[in-house]
Amino acid sequence: MVLESVDLTKYYGREIGCRNISLGVSPGEIFAFLGPNGAGKSTFVKTALGLLKPTSGTIRLFGKSPEDLHVRRKVGYLPENIRLPEWMTAEELLRFHGKLLYLPEKKLKRRIEEVLTRTKLWERKDNRIKTYSQGMRQRLALAVALLGEPELLFLDEPTSALDPVGRIEVREIITDLKRQGVAVFLNSHLLSEVEMVADSVAIINRGEIKARGKLAELLSGRGILIRGEIPEALLNKLKSRYQTGEAPNGLKLLGVSEEEVPAIMRDLVLGGANIYEVRPFKAALEELFIQAVEGKNGADN
Ligand SMILES: Nc1ncnc2c1ncn2[C@@H]1O[C@H](COP(=O)(O)OP(=O)(O)OP(=O)(O)O)[C@@H](O)[C@H]1O
């Protein structure tokens, strides 16, 4: 395992940061950590990077403490809302980070060209960062994170400042890294993007994991779609029992197992509903996320 945490708990005084987080990330895996604001994502990442000490539990990177220097050299980190030194050029900034990584001159030169080309900033390498747009800054921060050829890369909201083309480019960088065996730990609010790249996800809320698994498994067979005219009272009953979603001329019920379907249908028909269609559907990550965060109907799996 590239990253393994067991019951990792971090309190800030009496305030919970994250609690009992147990998860593992394998080489070449894209692991997405999702959660609303204040859920505990950054707390977990900072603890994994050795920037915060856990209150209890353990976290190992490459089987060792995150504070181990050899481990640190294998890890890249793109923080959220990074502030870059405005007066430096992109090349100067990368040189500075290259020195911190003890990269030999020849390799540093090669890596600077590679990462700036990969992030489409090579042409602008001699311009000061103060002349960069938000998107360029974010791409430069990504270049910094990639400089040391990390085997594990933490990306905190890597595409928040990017336009759609920039987002596609970052997605391509992430999938290229995966192909090279790099593990990516991705914090993102952009669920549709996560859906496109992640192998596994964990959904965290109020410091605790509420749902976790391989993305393909989490999204398969998660609910049913009902098309029909459903009396208000019945609709409200369903809404109180299940997480529901909008569907044209009907509704989606999430987290419904096949065994529950006959009873639901019986209730609907006896209650006066006109049903035209019932079929299973694959939930979108957004629905799974809302279900896990609101904790309805056994989302805590
Ligand atoms: N330095 C701190 N001192 C006290 N409480 C903190 C500190 N940092 C975070 N917290 C609290 O810990 C909880 C988790 O915060 P954290 O920043 O890890 O969430 P997050 O999921 O990264 O949120 P966001 O998506 O908004 O960045 C929150 O309740 C937050 O208020």
From TrEMBL:
This is ABC-2 type transport system ATP-binding protein. Belongs to the ABC transporter superfamily. One of its GO terms (molecular function) is ATP binding. The keyword Transport applies. Keywords: ATP-binding, Nucleotide-binding, Transport. PROSITE patterns: ABC_TRANSPORTER_1 (PS00211), ABC_TRANSPORTER_2 (PS50893). SUPFAM superfamilies: P-loop containing nucleoside triphosphate hydrolases. Pfam families: ABC_tran. Residues 3-231 form the ABC transporter domain. InterPro entries: AAA+_ATPase, ABC_transporter-like_ATP-bd, ABC_transporter-like_CS, P-loop_NTPase. It comes from Carboxydothermus ferrireducens DSM 11255. The lineage of its organism: Bacteria, Bacillati, Bacillota, Clostridia, Thermoanaerobacterales.
